[in-house]
Amino acid sequence: xxxxxxxxxxxxxxxxxxxxxxxxxxxxxxxxxxxxxxxxxxxxxxxxxxxxxxxxxxxx
Length: 60
Known about the structure:
By secondary structure, the chain is an all-alpha fold. 67% of the residues lie in helices and 0% in strands.
């Protein structure tokens, strides 16, 4: 079972741009965290559904 590996090199922003960018506002941070949590929940629910379906087929 191979898992998808997130590439560390997908962001091509220059270091100077990253270091001089203004910090995120609280509202921006909250939105990012809400999206991250929603994505994690979708993955967890899909995993649970997959396991539940697999358990149904094992009972036959």
